[in-house]
Amino acid sequence: xxxxxxxxxxxxxxxxxxxxxxxxxxxxxxxxxxxxxxxxxxxxxxxxxxxxxxxxxxxxxxxxxxxxxxxxxxxxxxxxxxxxxxxxxxxxxxxxxxxxxxxxxxxxxxxxxxxxxxxxxxxxxxxxxxxxxxxxxxxxxxxxxxx
Amino acid sequence: xxxxxxxxxxxxxxxxxxxxxxxxxxxxxxxxxxxxxxxxxxxxxxxxxxxxxxxxxxxxxxxxxxxxxxxxxxxxxxxxxxxxxxxxxxxxxxxxxxxxxxxxxxxxxxxxxxxxxxxxxxxxxxxxxxxxxxxxxxxxxxxxxxxxxxxxxxxxxxxxxxxxxxxxxxxxxxxxxxxxxxxxxxxxxxxxxxxxxxxxxxxxxxxxxxxxxxxxxxxxxxxxxxxxxxxxxxxxxxxxxxxxxxxxxxxxxxxxxxxxxxxxxxxxxxx
Amino acid sequence: xxxxxxxxxxxxxxxxxxxxxxxxxxxxxxxxxxxxxxxxxxxxxxxxxxxxxxxxxxxxxxxxxxxxxxxxxxxxxxxxxxxxxxxxxxxxxxxxxxxxxxxxxxxxxxxx
Lengths: 147, 271, 112
Hints:
The complex is a heterotrimer of chains A (147), B (271) and C (112).
Chain A: H1 3-6, H2 21-24, H3 39-44, E1 70-72, E2 81-84, H4 86-93, H5 115-119, H6 125-128, E3 142-144
Antiparallel strand pairs in A: 1-2, 2-3
Chain B: H1 2-21, H2 27-33, E1 42-45, H3 49-52, E2 57-60, H4 61-65, H5 70-77, H6 90-94, E3 108-109, E4 112-113, H7 127-131, H8 146-150, H9 163-168, E5 194-196, E6 205-207, H10 209-216, H11 238-242, H12 248-251
Antiparallel strand pairs in B: 1-2, 3-4, 5-6
Chain C: H1 2-20, H2 28-34, H3 38-46, H4 58-76, H5 83-111
Helix pairs in contact in C: 3-4, 4-5
């Protein structure tokens, strides 16, 4: 097994990666929990510029038409309602990443789920369990105070 | 047969009376159950210290507990709730994470500059600064002594600090938000207090959400320590609590000890 | 004359077996063989509108779904050294696109 393979096949080995995470994100906007980076702000500030198209790999697609944002009513007393932003999600995901595999309901309200399923890695939890901002940061989604 | 049963039950009830009567005065027995007060809440962190050739860090909660809410360190900064689970390294501190969030040699708090934690290279001269954490309380390297600190504070049985009273008496002031460390969030509404029925002879527990959320917010307990949102869904026993699960995540050390039964088992005994 | 024609035909078939791989089905070989590379183009065309699937008409969505199903059949019959990988990759990619169109179609039909 030569050194190049170890760059990826590194489990259990003491491999020095080429890029150190902390060095990489030094000075970037911080957020709490997760890996401590505010990726959204980092993009706003042009510290990162994610590609959405690779020549020879991606197909040329029509321009994205953003769907509406909407409110999800929280059933637990005292928890603010969720404001879901299609706009934010589709920037990075397109449509087919979530529909219909993760969110199968064609009409709002058809798919009912609880935080339990989410924490099990379903629905929002597919991404927000790890990778996207963590579920522990409740107020990132629970935004609308219920009067 | 029936007579014997009756006598036996009366006898047992009669036995509980002196036990309950002396409930308030069990301080003496607590010395066998609790560590000396200055060690209550101490965690020893040795993920990397030993390998790096320095003494492990002993973090005594009491000084930080007097100045900051649990939420600030455990949620905003992101320390784990179990000893050695955070795996803090010197590099993390130097990069401004964990201890380094405040201990960066620049941040001013309480009118003083907070000393720098760790260093990429350290000389022998700096050893004194390292020893402020990489030592145990008895080594003399610590600046603040528990005895002096706790002298004027009201105590609980077992000589533990009554943090609640310390705050209500204005003897300590606890910060929940630090600029550059904390993140602004809309506060979530505090949930109701409720009672927990016990399955044994002990009094029911009155659980105060209000008190807990003052220092913990919501995320510290939910859902990692208490996964359900519906009362009664999560069932647990004192045995699990004693092992450090559920209430035991905090009340084995740092928060008042589980051995102070009547702090939670509050309602009068059912007759 | 007939014999020459037969000879030609057999020669032609043999050439295709030899030169372009072997598929049972006779003259259909040539059709598949020629369009080996075209199916990728077809995929690109079908799935180009996933980003505005909600703006498409019911008829267009149905058409694309049908095309996707036909293309999937072609993908299933891929041959060659890259076939296994290409089948796996493009089945997944086509599925996501086809399912999205199906999702949008269901939404529109439900609304009507």
